[in-house]
User: Fold this.
Amino acid sequence: MRGLLQLIGISTLSSVALISCDSSSVRGPLRTELQLSSRVAVPGQQIKGTFVIINPSNPINLTEVAHPFGEQAPDHCRPDFQVYLTNGAVDNESGFAMNCLGEPFVIAHGTTRLPFTLRTDYSGCSTTGTPTPDSPMCPASGFPPLPPGSYKAIVVWSDVVPLPSPKPLAIELLMARDRV
Assistant:
């Protein structure tokens, strides 16, 4: 695809464990938030995080909502999410693999916690000799680390889902010698 090596379907993002805590005391609007183990990292490190969904209402089957007319039937493709870093110069969204599982993706009443790993390297790189700000030249192995600087961690879904977007979180990537 345009001479780019793309990392599609990051296993740490696409195979999340769904953890839900049912609570009859959950009140207020449907809301979401990101929680990160750190807001500072060295480029190339990974940051553990949790995408929290607080549902004060009835369970929501995101697979049915994303495919209301069963266009993927009988193997409905589960909506998937990813958390990635972006700033004015770099948009590091990687894309999604088809995650067509026979099971629904249900957000239960209460608090649901979806663990993820936030990458601080590029999700793609150029093998053609034509690098861009979002896709630098590929090193011999792996993907190059993002440049040091200020970023925002944001969530994107593979399908349209009825969940509010969480507030983006500020992340600072420091050069290794600057890390305290």
